[in-house]
Write a structure and sequence with these properties.
Layout lengths: L1 H67 L2 H14 L5 H6 L1
């Protein structure tokens, strides 16, 4: 009877030890994941710091052309050029 009790007790200790090792492994993996996530966040922040002024400048430069774009007027100009062109000069007039 005592040998069964000893085996049960030994098995329980092994199980608890395995659980503790597993917890330690998961904790280590989580720490590594968080360190990598922190590095990625720092890279993202640095990229945004470097690119934000360029994006703002590009956006400001696009403001006027986008607001003054008039598709119907542009298509009218193209249509007039096509009407005035002969079929041989059609490609050249569209490129100009």
């Amino acid at each position: 009877m005592s040998s069964i009790t000893d085996r049960v007790f030994s098995s329980r200790l092994e199980w608890e030890s395995a659980v503790l090792r597993g917890c330690a492994s998961f904790r280590q993996m989580e720490e590594e994941r968080l360190v990598q996530l922190q590095g990625l966040a720092e890279q993202y922040y640095q990229t945004m710091v470097e690119l934000r002024p360029k994006l703002v400048t590009a956006s400001e430069r696009l403001h006027e052309p986008v607001k003054t774009c008039d598709i119907s007027a542009d298509m009218e100009v193209v249509g007039k050029k096509v009407q005035r062109s002969t079929s041989t000069n059609l490609i050249l007039s569209l490129l100009i």
